Amino acid sequence: MPVPYLPEDGTSQEYHVSQGATTKRPTIMEVARLAGVSHQTVSRFLKFNGDGMKPATSERIKTAIEQLDYRPNLVARAMRDRRTGRLAILLPTGTAVSSLELLAGATESAHEAGYVVEVVTLGGPPQTWSQRALELSDSGLFEGILSLTSMTLPVQRAGSVPIVVSPDYDEHMRGVGELADASHMAAIIERLAEYGHRRFLHLAGAYAHASAGERRQVYLDTLHRLGLESYGVVDCEWSAQAARRAMLELPAGSGVTAVIGANDLVAAGAIRGAWERGWRVPADLSITGWDNNPVTAFVPPSLTTVDVDHEKLGRRVLARLLAALRGEPAPEEDDEPITRVIWRESTGPARRPA
């Protein structure tokens, strides 16, 4: 089929694209002939996404690439100049909702810097993960590697691509580090104390998760610091049903006016249990959660919770990798935590004693 184009010299020509099946992969030279430009111009287009080119030239090259279904040979490019435009992010096997948001933030930052991201799952025992990272570093497929789980790496060989380790997940994909930070638990209790609350109950998560242990400890430390009382800690293992049962079994004369849930699911179970007891939230009982599950903003009463900005963390850790790629010092990070309290309808002043 004849395809008209205007070469850079302004002369009108036609380039014929075969309609039959093809077994030969289109080359950059064919793209250049179809677009009527030099292969160096096509190379600049691919490298800089058309930035700095005349719009008409850029459009011709783009059209030629689409018509020929041309795809750059990344392996050949890597062998030639060690530039693939690809970054690898390493994660343990397992699932964590937070990882999706964290990866979204990292991927967005990578795209802004001109890279694509591939997620590589680390199988096998953790002792083998550092060797896997080194193999990827030497493969020529990636320009940089970011590990979101802890690993011990030897001094990297000269010429190998950088590996940056940000230990945000343990070997079972449970959040650690900033993801387990519980400092805002203190802010919640301090505000509730201002509301007149004096006796609290904590519905804890599963202690295999660092976040559950941290939230419990900050809860106890803050009550002790403020001279407040804890009626107790109930281990709920992130279970809404266990939290509901804890509320159903709470003695009517316990004096508890505030329930601190380890996450939003536990808090939802507590609200259900309070409703079954005929207790009004927050008139009789204030209840808080953690994680800012989207649904908690819309159920009555909307839940006071802690939002965790996983995307911000993703952008932060990707910035460290980009700095390593450029041979620059790690960027200075702001001191603002990735968490913030969102105050909603489930908290209010403590009820007056009868």
UniProtKB/TrEMBL annotation:
Domain HTH lacI-type: 26-81
Domain of life: Bacteria
A Pfam cross-reference name: Peripla_BP_3
SUPFAM superfamilies documented for this protein: lambda repressor-like DNA-binding domains (SSF47413), Periplasmic binding protein-like I (SSF53822)
InterPro entries: HTH_LacI, LacI/GalR-like_sensor, Lambda_DNA-bd_dom_sf, Peripla_BP_I
Recorded GO MF terms: DNA binding
Alphabetical UniProt keywords: DNA-binding, Transcription, Transcription regulation
Region (Disordered): 1-21
CDD domains with a match to the protein in the record: HTH_LacI
Polar residues bias spans: 10-21
Protein name, UniProt field: LacI family DNA-binding transcriptional regulator
Organism for this UniProt entry: Nonomuraea monospora
